[in-house]
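Example record

The entry below shows one chain as it appears in the dataset: sequence first, then structure tokens.
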Amino acid sequence: MKKIKLFCFGFGQVAQSFVKKISSEKISIELTTTSREKTSKKNFENISFKSFNFSKDNFDKDLIKSLKATNYILISIAPSEGEDIVLKNFKNILQKNKDSYKWICYLSATSVYGNHNGAWVDEKSITRPTSTNGKERLNAEKNWLDLALSNNLPFQVFRLSGIYSNYNNVLSRLKSGEAKIIQKKEHYFSRIHIEDIANVLFKSLTNFKSGEIYNISDDQPSTSEEVMLYGAKLLKMKKPDSIELKDVSSEMVKNFYKDSKKVSNKKMKSFFEYDLKFPSYKEGLSYIKDNFI
């Protein structure tokens, strides 16, 4: 693979990290993206590209030409008011141009599993989302999979665990004084460093099985307190203050603490033959501490 035509619906941290990975492998990228901003020419990692305006009910009609001409599509836009806005606006385009596409990937979230009281979940586990986000993500997955199956589209779903990066992580929150330990016993959740997401996405470009769902998470689900205490130890800080869950004002945080589960990554590691760069938060945070803080 020497060149790739990539269309990114949304161009946030995961899509950007993916493009960086492709570029680092000396593959030329013809890139197109969307955002809620007005259409403009942009540059990222020395790649010149066009970013088209796209919101729930409006989009720059010129993006259709680029969507028809692309071969690879990454969807990282969350549903809006219960609808997947990519399917809403471009379902017919995808159907009519299905023979052009080699790879379509939808980025979902492990919130689709809901609460499993700290038990392990894998791709065959019951999905019973408790949050609005989880319910909308699950519905979007099903609609995309139905479209792919009925039109023979090359399509996969990646369910992402809690994402952290070299710049967005618990060490940054600890240093700013924002981090607090929220008291809830045995609340387990999984996380994944953004570089590992990009690496798996890259591997899937050449190792692809349509209609599949993969969890993207690290090897060590743990409690928020464990991660926080390890981070404080790295920074040689005192233990952060604690707060009772009932006293948390953020509804988003409260919803997060409704679900306790450990997300298995065995299918992902086996199929893509991938060894995580950061197998747990310990390697990830230690790397960040040594190189970025």
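Notes for this example: The mean pLDDT is 96. The two ends are 36 Å apart (CA to CA).
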